[in-house]
Amino acid sequence: MPDVIDHRPNRPSLPERIKRDPAPTRLQYRLERMWLRPIWRQAVRVGVPSFLIALTAGLWLADEDRRATLTGGVRQVMDKVQSREEFLVRTMTVEGASPVVDKALRAMLPVELPASSFDIDLTALRLQVMQLDVIESIDLRIKPGGILSAVVKEREPAILWRHARGIDILDRSGHRVASVTARDVRADLPLIAGDGADLAVTEALALIDAAGPILPRVRGLVRRGERRWDLELDHGQRIMLPADGAVIALQAAMALERSQDMLGRDIVAVDLRNPSRPVLRLGIEARNTLRQARGQPLLGPDGRIIQDEEKTEG
Amino acid sequence: MAELYQTQRAMRNIRRAALQRGVIGILDIGTSKIACLVLRFDGTGTFRETDGVGPMAGQANFRVIGAASTRSRGMRRGEIEVMAETERAIRTVVAAAQKIAGVRVDHVIACLSGGRPASYGLAGDITLEAGRVHDHDVARVLAACDAPDFGRGREVLHAQPVNFAVDNRSSLGDPRDHVGNRLSCDMHVLTVDGDVIGNLIQCIRRCDLELAGIASAAYASARASLVEDEQELGAACIDLGGGGTGVSIFVKKHMIFADAVRIGGHLITQDIAQGLRVPLPVAERLKTLSGGVEATGRDDREMLDLGGAEASGWDGERRSVSRADLIGIMRPRVEEILENARQVLDAAGFDQMPSQQIVLTGGGSQIPGLDGLAARILGPTIRCGRPLRIDGLAHQFTDPGFASAVGLALFAAHPQDEWWDFEMPADSYPTRSLRRAYRWFRNNW
């Protein structure tokens, strides 16, 4: 203790008393030990801040107006970015499409050009376009310079298919291309008919190729029982082809035709359903000629035997 | 002794659990300072080239990750005097060590320097029925040791089997599977005051810590300071502490005797404070910085400032004394301490030992010239020991004052066999516990 105690108001402040033997209080000690537990540390360092953030965000968003302001602001910013000059699509180019398809494509575009490229969903547009039967594939992309380019590959019409609901144009794979109202619209295409004929278009085309020499006489192919073909010729003639090896059977028939002018004779049907045993069905005239030579009663146009009584009566 | 057996076993299980978790605290509660080390047992045993010395004497499976020490409070002669003060000191040191280590310490191993330790050598003898020593025979022979009356309120702190003999083949470390007819053992039992241990346990429990083991400070500092050869051939370790001086004798790597002299370094400080009429902190500083036991002519001219007005207090004058005066005050007290240690050693029969090596450790062993004085009093083969190097311990904790902390770390890493490590033979369980078990069954089913 100093000898004279200084009581002056402006006395120099005494050096602070050094606290000897400092010790943490029990609470401090326990808190410190709790803090050294990893789970507490995690809870305080991660849990509390995230909880506070979630709480403030939740409280702030609880108000309807604020939510509206927020969503409005976000949308505004998005619009601002999306409607920039760089993202603008001005024109649409269509390559490889006929004028009708071109028009349809332009009509399918969901937005009016010019529009932002963010508004054009190319994937959805492509799926929508692919639903058109006439289009085999389409390559849609946005090119620099604001051009929406569509490179279209159309299906090629290969054959006509007459069925119960009308006439369809099919391509080589049997996929529908378009409908026509009459056969005469596409007289250049061969005709097939019958149920399930569209599933065997490849075979039908091969048969038509094989029927080369008699092609002007061919009226069409008829699918029978969804398994085999009949080749229909004019004058009511037809070639019945087997289910398997129809092309080979037709080639055999063509060989017969070439060598013996088979189809120029009075034959109604060539039955090749059993390839090892071709059967010819004669016409009524030929049969009557034969019958006459044999002295048998003649046949009427309905195939029945004309009775002698009628003759005597007539 | 069955109850003690159970508590010691429980502590050992706690220690095993703590080692499994990998972190254990060492709490050396001394009279002048409290030290806390936090050990991490990772079992890597890595040896770093920078350490220079060989692979840490096999102590490489743990490292110190936090260490702190503080001035002790509320302690007197190695015993707790004011429990709240001691608790605050423990809290301080544990909090500091935890902060350095960055992990929470739940289990601590503590040491006890006071409590009037008393050592007993017990002998047990059994007949081997099988003609061969089995595991349960070891437990049986330990249980067969006839314990004398330790006195009221005495607790067994250590009960270590020191020596086994089968028939006439003695000094066996491990008697298992030896063929013979008789198995006898010598056990060293160290007892202390039960109340002192109870206070310590209570104090540690109040700090939210769990006690995973307890050892005698004399034993711990000897583990740290005696090198392996000294432990094997026989040596005495004198731990010159603040409140007391611990004496322990080792031979064949086992402690065979331990005792404590109840005067220590604080008494020297007290003498200086009285003799020079200075406050205790000043006296402590004088003792630590300029103390000694051998005066030379130069010391007459070396004047020590006793501090100014704030230090010497009421008279306000600046005084100084020569170092020779200081030495003149210290020397008789140091001599007295060493004389007492000599008496303890004589009582233990240390002069009959094959090796007369004496190792001085503890904070008091840093007095300059102590080895010369001790050699005159205790015997010629004497050295001042520093604790063993352990991995990760900061340099300021490697001085002799921390020998018992380091020794506790070694005790935690490599505990010696104690009686309670062996399964107790079933027939020596007291019938009381069987009756209690029966009652528990009857009450619950």
TrEMBL record, chain B:
Domain of life where this protein originates: Bacteria
InterPro entries noted in UniProt: ATPase_NBD, Cell_div_FtsA, FtsA/MreB, SHS2_FtsA
Gene Ontology annotations for the cellular component aspect, listed alphabetically: cell division site; cytoplasmic side of plasma membrane
Gene Ontology terms describing biological process: FtsZ-dependent cytokinesis
Sequence ranges assigned to domain SHS2 in this UniProt record: 24-225
Assembly and oligomerization: Self-interacts. Interacts with FtsZ.
Family statement drawn from the similarity comment of this UniProt entry: Belongs to the FtsA/MreB family.
Protein name (database record): Cell division protein FtsA
Lineage of the organism: Bacteria, Pseudomonadati, Pseudomonadota, Alphaproteobacteria, Rhodobacterales
Gene giving rise to this polypeptide: ftsA
